[in-house]
Write a structure and sequence with these properties.
Blueprint: E1 4-12, E2 19-29, H1 43-64, E3 79-90, E4 95-105, E5 113-114, H2 118-122, H3 128-140, H4 143-154, H5 163-181, E6 198-206, E7 216-224, E8 229-231, E9 237-239, E10 243-249, H6 252-262, H7 265-279
Antiparallel strand pairs: 1-2, 3-4, 4-5, 6-7, 7-10, 8-9
Helix pairs in contact: 3-4, 3-5, 4-5
């Protein structure tokens, strides 16, 4: 007797346990594997199964997304439903299109209408987990390498994982973190004041893969207290506790031209660097 496995999703009423809706996602024939490749699901099949389940869940969730207002903000008349708006949503491993209810004013003389999207409702159409992956990959690898890594995990290319999307997300989060790092820390978070500090600063040029683009300049520094420099043997010493900081300018050519006229190039970088490393020790 031959058998198969069916992956089924049921929508069930919680109170009565009545099955309201039943969807068969897919089915798999149960056969004896002839090689290790046939054990379980392949990478692409796993992603596909997850995408289908996500589609059903998102369809049910999109029905519950409703406009908070029930009267027109302009004239006060009741609102009426006005079809659906197709809106894109990017999950960690799959892309989806949700259909969200639109509304318009019931007063024929009032032309107010509302066309919501995932981005307008939640501030972004990219799931935070995917945004985290973009930032982590963008910080550890070049943007093109990050794109290849994400494509490998997904078993297929996705437009949302394009290297330019990774760059924009990394820059956006980096700008927020940079602004946050400029805030003075609370007194309880600060180390005890140091009488002396040792600061080591170095810089260089980092090449990029884009054609006709110049490399960008970067500075890095470490700061530590003299008492944290301990001898390992007669020829080596080790820093037991240190703070690291770095700054970079991806638009070095433009920044350098501005610096020549304003005189704030390396000085501005050095000041930003020193503020970061010294702040944690004073």
């Amino acid at each position: 007797m031959d058998f198969e496995l069916r992956i089924v999703v049921e929508k069930v009423a919680v109170s009565s346990q009545e099955v309201v809706k039943r969807d068969t996602i897919t089915s798999y024939a149960i056969q004896c594997p002839t090689s290790i490749v046939e054990l379980g699901l392949r990478h692409g099949e796993q992603i596909s199964l997850l995408e289908k389940i996500q589609d059903i869940l998102l369809t049910e969730q999109s029905i519950l997304i409703d406009h908070e207002m029930h009267v027109c903000p302009h004239c006060g008349n009741p609102l009426k439903k006005n079809g659906y708006k197709a809106s894109n949503f990017h999950a960690v491993f799959s892309d989806h299109t949700l259909h969200i209810q639109k509304h318009h004013c019931s007063n024929a003389d009032c032309h107010w209408h509302n066309t919501p999207t995932i981005k307008s409702l939640f501030g972004s159409n990219i799931h935070p987990d995917l945004a985290i992956l973009h930032c982590e990959q963008g910080a550890l690898y070049s943007y093109r390498e990050a794109e290849k890594n994400l494509e490998t995990w997904n078993a297929r290319p996705r437009r949302v994982n394009n290297h330019m999307h990774v760059k924009r997300m990394t820059d956006k989060v980096g700008a927020v973190l940079s602004e946050h790092n400029q805030l003075a820390p609370a007194a309880a978070e600060c180390s005890a004041p140091a009488q002396d500090l040792i600061i080591q600063i170095d810089g260089g040029h980092i090449p990029i893969q884009e054609k006709d683009k110049r490399s960008f300049e970067a500075l890095s520094a470490i700061v530590y207290r003299p008492e944290h420099l301990q001898a390992v043997d007669h020829h080596h010493r080790q820093i037991m506790e240190k703070t690291c900081e770095s700054v970079s300018d991806p638009c070095c050519a433009q920044a350098r031209d501005v610096s020549r006229h304003q005189g704030d190039g390396a000085g501005r970088w050095g000041e930003e660097l020193l503020v970061g490393v010294v702040r944690s020790h004073t």
